[in-house]
């Protein structure tokens, strides 16, 4: 008799696919045992390897959803041998990488949904092909400014950005994010741009070089369900609304969660996709079912 692990391995496949600019990315497809009714692409958080979303993927396949998780360039399986000297923009993850994943999935005759975690909610507005999505769920997406955080977290974040990281990055040439148990190491420009934009309550919408993004985000019409956990200090509802308001033409439904609402002890910034989050995943499933 096959074990659950063996069965899951048979229902998943490692794939390589091109970003819109041709950069080769790697990810994992999770398939159903019954005829699939839709695809879901997972747009992950900054520096979070795509394997983190495996439990969510395996859960959703039980209900007819095929899931695609992948690593952005410079992260995990899509990273070069060395990040030192690796040149890219933080925006590339949305406008090229996620857009490439959507093109890849669009070749199949199935409806397509998106689930975004943190940066993944930013990435939606960077897409040139967002019109290929039926609906989108975002979790823990906020404007990044420390002023939206509780006092203790605000102080900690400023210390890390302004005192801890700069000398380390100056020596390594990239952000050794993994040394802080935060995920995959990050390319230099991802660190620089992220640090710069998090200094402003309007995030990159305040950057003179990124003013074109205001109209670009306003063009998105995909229905969005924006979820914020009330114990997620990095992306509380105020921070979420500060960012999501730029999806001006989209119908944005805001959802605030207490951990006890979904039978969890804590959610934080990462708990949306941890093993005890089945109540959250079930809500995604039932919502997406309504579009089919």
Question: How would you characterize the overall build of this protein?
Answer:
By secondary structure, the chain is α/β, with parallel strands linked by helices. It has a single domain (4-289), classed as 3-Layer(aba) Sandwich (Rossmann fold), CATH 3.40.50.1820. 32% of the residues lie in helices and 16% in strands. The chain has helices at residues 4-10, 54-61, 92-106, 119-123, 151-172, 188-197, 212-218, 237-244, 278-289, and strands at 12-18, 24-30, 38-43, 65-70, 112-117, 136-139, 224-229, 252-257. Strands 1-2-4-3-5-6-7-8 form an eight-stranded mixed beta sheet, with helices on both faces. The longest helix is centred in the middle third of the chain and has 22 residues, at 151-172. The chain is globular and about 55 Å long.
Task: Report a brief summary of the structure.
The chain is an alpha/beta fold. The chain is 32% helix and 16% strand. The protein has an 8-stranded mixed β-sheet, with helices on both faces.
